[in-house]
Amino acid sequence: MSLLASAAASAPIQWTQLGLQPGIDLGFFTLRFYSLAYLGGILFAYWHLSKMIKAPGAPMAQRHVDDLFFYCTLGIILGGRLGYATFYDPSLWTSVKLFQLWTGGMSFHGGLMGVLLAIAYVCWRGQLNFLRVSDYIAVNVPVGMMLGRLANFINGELWGRPADVPWAMVFPGAGPLARHPSQLYEAALEGAILIVILMVMFWQSRARYRPGLLVGVFTTGIALGRFIVEFYREPDSQLAEFARETGLSMGQWLTVPLILLGVVITVRALMKPPLASGTGTPAAA
C-alpha cells in the first residue's frame, strides 16, 4: 500500500517489488494460487449454495447441490479450456498443450457455457426448474471470478494497456512501459461489486421469488464489467490485429450478446408476478 500511496510522486510501481509469488513452494511441488483460486471459488459455491437452499423457497435439495458441485466443476474446467482454444488460440486444437491447463489460459465465455450445460443436465435429470436453479448458482459465481483475477495479478499475467495513471505498474515480460493493473479492475467489477449486489438481493430482498432476476442481473453485470475492462486490458497477442481491425477486442464482441441477454432476462423477470413464498406458483396479485 505504501508503494501505491507514493506512486504519484515517484517512478512507476514495479510489480517485481511487491514481493508476490505465483504459489506456495512445498519443496517438491508449487501449489499455484491460480489453482487455489479455482478450488476456493468452487468450495465457497458449494458451501454457500448448501446454506442458500435452507432458506424458504429453495428450488432444489442437497442431493442436487452435490450433483451441481461435480458437474459444474467439470463444466468450468472443460468449457473454460476448450473455449480458450476456440476463441483465443485455435492452434491449441492441434497441440498437446490443449490438455496442459497451466499453459495458455481459460475462457470465461467457455466456462460459462460449460456451467450452463452442467446445470441443464442436473435440472433435466432431477426435473428442476432451470431458471430458478441458475438464479441460485449465479449468486455464487462472482466469488470465483474475483479470486481468479486476483490470482492473475499475483502471477503478473494478463496485464493491461500502457497507462499514465498513478497506480500504473511495470509487469515482467510486458516491456518497460507502466500499464493498467487490469486484473484488479476485473476483480472489482466482475467480482467484489457483483458479490455485494447479488448477496444483498438474495438475502435482503425477495429477488429469489422472481425467476430469472438474479441470473439476469448477474449476466448483465459481469458482461458489462468485462466489456468495460477490455478497454484497459492488453489484447492477447494473437488477437491484437483483430482488435485493431474491428475496433473491439474478441472479449468485447463475445460479451455484447451477453449484455443484451441479461437485460432481456432481467426485464422479463420483473414483468412477471413473483412466486408465492415457498411454492412454485405465482403469488396472488
TrEMBL record:
PROSITE patterns registered for this protein in UniProt: LGT (PS01311)
Alphabetical UniProt keywords: Cell membrane, Lipoprotein, Membrane, Transferase, Transmembrane, Transmembrane helix
InterPro entries: Lgt
Residues at which a 1,2-diacyl-sn-glycero-3-phospho-(1'-sn-glycerol) binds: 149
UniProt keyword Lipid biosynthesis present: no
Entry's transmembrane regions: 29-47, 68-87, 99-124, 136-154, 184-203, 212-232, 252-271
GO annotations of cellular component type: plasma membrane
GO biological process entries: lipoprotein biosynthetic process
PANTHER family in the record: PHOSPHATIDYLGLYCEROL--PROLIPOPROTEIN DIACYLGLYCERYL TRANSFERASE, PROLIPOPROTEIN DIACYLGLYCERYL TRANSFERASE
The family this protein is said to belong to: Belongs to the Lgt family.
Name assigned to this protein: Phosphatidylglycerol--prolipoprotein diacylglyceryl transferase
Annotated organism of origin: Allopontixanthobacter confluentis
Lineage of the species this protein comes from: Bacteria, Pseudomonadati, Pseudomonadota, Alphaproteobacteria, Sphingomonadales
